[in-house]
Design a protein that fits this description.
With about 400 residues, the chain is of the alpha+beta class. About 65% of the residues lie in helices and about 10% in strands. The chain has two domains: about 240 residues, no CATH class; about 160 residues, Reverse transcriptase/Diguanylate cyclase domain (Alpha-Beta Plaits, 2-Layer Sandwich). A six-stranded mixed beta sheet has the order 2-3-1-6-7-8, sandwiched between helices. A two-stranded antiparallel ribbon has the order 4-5. The model has no long low-confidence stretch (mean pLDDT about 85). Keywords: Membrane, Nucleotidyltransferase, Transferase, Transmembrane, Transmembrane helix.
């Protein structure tokens, strides 16, 4: 496996070195590079929430990188050395901002190298179709008629197949106990890449002929990305209808994947279990509809007090679970105290069972806190530990945080 990864990277570096010393780079190419880098950064910033979930959910299968829109546009506009700059900038930004340095660095380097080999292969295919094109000119200007369509389709196929084959090979090699077909990922991912290739071509045509309309295509890419994938993942997460939080099963599956990542990185992962104190009294006094308003308000308060990288789920009834990647038990306790304080000052306006408007106050939470690996090393054991800490908080007067194995916080 090590030899395979090193070989792919060495070939990518060799391609970069060979093209860097032989390919002329025009001033206009640098301008287009700047535009594509800015577009890719804006794209990732807008979609970072869903991309964190998609990348984690894709563990063990190829992670379909929708930055392919900009990478394939780079094939049609930029020489290979500048394609490498675009790819490197995108992966570096992704590692820093989307995954907050919690992705395995050598995996990202390997993935970037596979993308560079894919873009170089696609560039070579287009150059073979149009050998007379000035090396300083973008290849998109040469595409014309049916021949251009064939060249574009071939370049798109090479781009996808090179990257896909190299990544699938690595996944199969590192997961010998898993069925090989699982490494192929869902067939629908191929449609996403086909769409990305088409959009990449549209981006280049607009940038060459009507550059002032390019921002409209960026909006189009973002709209398709968020409009199509976000509902898909919300459905997959089986979002709780009352609170908008993810379901207990989805939360558990994501927690298991996050612990596996943390085990590789040597990072901690905090877990909180929260229970709304005396919730039955609220239902009995004001009615279940008012109780539902309280649950929604508490859920929103919890979400406001955690980071975008954290995962909040409804565990059942009036219980909530929070996953805190990269946070140890001390940090989890601080987060729990912030959440408890935020809930304590809530004023929830609701309608009681008589139809009268009421304001419900005096809410409190009992919280159990713990962290991987100090509290436990599996999701099940970690949940059992923080649940026991939660009941300890209940037994000792409620409205407090208890750390698993450490007493009151």
């Amino acid at each position: 496996m090590l030899a395979y990864v090193v070989a792919v990277q060495v070939i990518a570096y060799a391609v970069l070195l060979a093209t860097a010393v032989t390919t002329p780079v025009s001033t206009r190419s640098w301008t287009w590079l700047g535009v594509l880098v800015v577009a890719s950064v804006i794209h990732l910033e807008a979609a970072q929430g869903i991309e964190r979930v998609r990348e984690l959910a894709a563990e063990g299968t190829p992670y379909t990188h929708l930055q392919s829109v900009w990478f394939f546009a780079g094939v049609l506009l930029l020489p290979v050395p500048l394609q490498a700059v675009l790819i490197g900038a995108s992966f570096a930004h992704e590692w820093l901002r989307v995954f907050r340095r919690r992705a395995v660095p050598h995996r990202k380097v390997f993935s970037a190298c596979t993308v560079l080999l894919a873009t170089a292969g696609a560039t070579l295919a287009l150059a073979a179709f149009y050998p007379g094109v000035d090396p300083g000119q973008p290849l998109v200007t040469a595409l014309d008629g049916p021949r251009g369509v064939v060249a574009l389709v071939l370049a798109g196929l090479i781009y996808r197949l090179v990257n896909y084959a190299l990544v699938v090979g690595a996944i199969i090699a590192t997961n010998p106990d898993e069925p090989a077909h699982r490494a192929l990922g869902p067939a629908s991912d191929q449609l996403l890449i086909a769409a990305a290739v088409g959009l990449g071509y549209a981006v280049t045509v607009v940038m060459v002929h009507q550059p002032w309309t390019a921002p409209l295509l960026l909006v189009t890419v973002l709209a398709l990305h968020l409009g199509l994938l976000l509902p898909q993942f919300r459905a997959a997460a089986r979002t709780d209808g009352k609170t908008g939080l993810v379901s207990a099963q989805w939360w558990h599956d994501q927690a298991a994947a996050e612990l596996e990542r943390a085990r590789r990185l040597g990072d901690p992962v905090g877990v909180l279990m929260l229970d709304l104190d005396r919730f039955k009294r609220i239902n009995d006094r004001f009615g279940h509809l008012a109780g539902d308003e309280v649950l929604r308000a508490v859920a929103e308060a919890v979400r406001r007090e955690v980071r975008g990288t954290d995962l909040v789920g409804r565990w059942g009834g009036e219980e909530f679970a929070v996953l805190l990647p990269g946070v140890d038990a001390t940090g989890a306790t601080r987060t729990a105290e912030r959440i408890r304080a935020a809930v304590s000052v809530l004023h929830v306006t609701a309608r009681d069972h008589t139809g009268q408007d009421v304001v419900i106050t005096g809410l409190s939470l009992s919280v159990g806190a713990g962290a991987f690996p100090t509290t436990a090393t599996t999701v099940t054991d970690l949940l059992l530990a923080v649940d026991a800490a939660l009941y300890e908080a209940k037994d000792h007067g409620r409205d407090q945080v208890r750390v698993a194995g450490a007493g009151t916080a």
